[in-house]
Amino acid sequence: MRTTTTLASAMALLLAASPAAAQKFDGLADTPPMGWNSWNHFGCQIDEDLIKETADAMARNGMRDAGYEYVNIDDCWHGERDEDGFIQPDPERFPSGMKALADYVHERGLKLGIYSDAGAKTCAGYPGSQGYEYQDAMQYARWGIDYLKYDWCNTGEGGAQRNPVEAYTTMRDALYAAGRPIVLSICEWGDNEPWMWGEEIGHLWRTTGDIINCWDCEVGHGNWSSFGIMNILDKQDGLREYAGPGHWNDPDMMEVGNLSTPAEDRAHFTMWAMLAAPLIAGTDIRDVSDSLRTTLTNEEIIAVDQDPLGIQGYAHKKTADVEIWVKPLMDGDWAMTILNRSDEPQDFEYDFMNEYAFEDALTGRRTAFEKEVYDVRDLWAGEDLADTSRPIRKRLPVHDVLALRLTPTGPMPTRQENEIEPDPGSAKQE
Ligand code: GLA
What we know:
The chain is an alpha/beta fold. A hairpin with a 3-residue loop joins strand 13 (314-318) and strand 14. Helices cover 26% and strands 23% of the residues.
């Protein structure tokens, strides 16, 4: 953690003091945002050709049609401010300028995102927006930007620490004043519990420090750490009640495509869908393999993430090796994912009729498998399995998932309906 301040009371005061007219733009993230971001794979090695080629690829490889919308430039695009204080892109990396790049991306049916920071400098040391919020928001609006990831580096320490609610509210108001609908992605790493105050300010908020491309690890960098997929998953505990349409927990941009095996990529993607997380791809998608494309564009997994109810899933049952997660979906459906966290294959059996019902304390939704039958569909195999009247048995490969969708089909047949009519003659003889 880079900061630790908790500011519940100051937050409330600041929110109450905000001008009545200022607000975030509504309707921009009714379901979790989907797109791509440069940071996880490319770091600072970015330029306009990469962004254009990525937009071309998304339009061509099925990602756009599967719902990926934003092409997001992360840190390191910046040049200097001009004599009037307006930020300019790096003239060597982005020689055509941001307006031309936004036009290019828009012409392909996609949207352009950009990155800034609430401090004087970004995490990589480029100009931040502190003190320039309204000018920067105006510049982004002029360029045709659609999404802003707003980071938290260099915002001070101790008594000089910038107040996060003030900082993010200022940028929210600046974007609103600039008049162009722009998604605001709050990126303060969960340090100040943004789930407590983020709903009125942004459309998504990071819940943790940075993700890194390992299954289960923590990598220290001095005063902060980055975390593997399982570590980040564990840190989502207790946060589901804060997310919903228009305001999402963000467990960070995906490492799908950057992990060690296709199974890990598949499991990571599925768990982010179970979390109703923003699906922001973080790999090089310009020349994507068939296997990775199949993972990133699995419509049935994406439908779990993008379900209009926007209910974040939760762990129904956990052992050290295997976790069962469930997520209530529209029309009485449920997503159910069985995750093998362990380094060995696991044999999994689930007898719906004799296990505890799924019972969602948040929504009051519950299953009654003894009374109602659900069809069971395997979302990675793309095939219908049995229904919930019979147990399922599967071998789970290492670091992989079984992802299911349960759809109610009607009442469980009563015993009499199931049984063959007894022979009246033999009954009499007894
Ligand atoms: C922070 C963010 C990352 C990325 C880098 C860029 O660490 O959390 O997601 O934007 O800054 O420098």
